[in-house]
Every structure is written in structure tokens, then in C-alpha cells.
Amino acid sequence: MLATILTINKYTREYEFMYGVVLWSDDFDKKAVFWCEDQGDLAYFSGSQDSTVSTFDAGDLVEFDISRDSKLRTATNPRIVQEKLDIQLPAKLLAEAPCTNPAAKPPARQSAEIVDFSSRRSNYVDEFRAEFA
Question: What angle is formed at CA 45 by the lines to CA 44 and CA 50, rounded to 5 degrees?
């Protein structure tokens, strides 16, 4: 993992730039999703014609400017730092997600030991009734 010093905007308390790994990209629409180094929300890149990077591949390490629009974290001005840093990362993340892994079974519930109190209860009820009769 990269050791970096993140600069934080003192007014917004948000990071100004960040490193991330490309999880998904669409070359035609110039869009990508980045997994951020702070392990927070994913960052979404929606490129334009003036973008300096034309294509990304899953696993590329990128540096980008980051901002937050409403509840969405957006990446702008992405720069490739290293190509194919971890091309298996998207597959690794999917394998760890229990909802997307059909082979993953939910953990088996341990059955509880059931104790029969009915015989004890009748004795207590009978004693209680006898005491106040």
C-alpha cells in the first residue's frame, strides 16, 4: 500500500486529492469507479472530452482530485500512477461479498439447548397456591 500524506481542505474538511484503484471503467462513456485509499465511499469519475486520460483498466492505480457533490464522491483530473497494480482486485472484492458469491453459504445457526420448565412450573404454581390458600 502506498504511504501518502493526504491534504485536507481546512474549510470543507475533505481530501483534495487521493489515490485509488480502478474497479470498473467504460472507455466509450469515459466513466470509472475508484476504490479510494481511505477505504471510504467509492469515487465516481465521469470524464469529458478534455480529460487527459482516455482509458482505464481495472487494477490501475490512479491519483485524482476528489470532491463531494451531495452524497456522491466524485473524482476529477485522474492520472495513472501505475498500470495494472492489482488486476485481480475487483474479483477479490466480489469473492469476499457474501451477497454476490453463490458458493458462500450463510453461517449455520447453532441450535440452542431447550430446557423443559413445565414440570418445575407446575410445582412452583402448586406451592404458591398452597401458601396463600
Answer: 165
Over its C-alpha atoms, the chain yields an Rg (Å, rounded) of 28
The predicted-structure confidence for 15-69, as pLDDT tens digits, reads as follows: 688 999 999 998 888 899 999 988 889 999 987 655 566 688 889 999 999 988 8
pLDDT of residue 2: 43
Q: How far is CA 63 from the centre of its chain?
A: 19
Distance in angstroms (rounded) separating the CA atoms of residues 35 and 60: 11
What separation in angstroms does the CA of 115 have from each of 119, 120, 127, 128?
11, 11, 21, 22
CA 87: distance to chain centroid?
A: 18
Q: Can you say whether the dihedral through the CA atoms of 122, 125, 130, 133 is positive or negative?
A: negative
In DSSP notation, 57-71 reads: -TT-EEEEEEEEETT
Mean pLDDT of the chain, nearest integer: 75
Nearest Cα to Cα of residue 20 among 6, 7, 38: 38
Question: What does the pLDDT read at residue 19?
Answer: 93
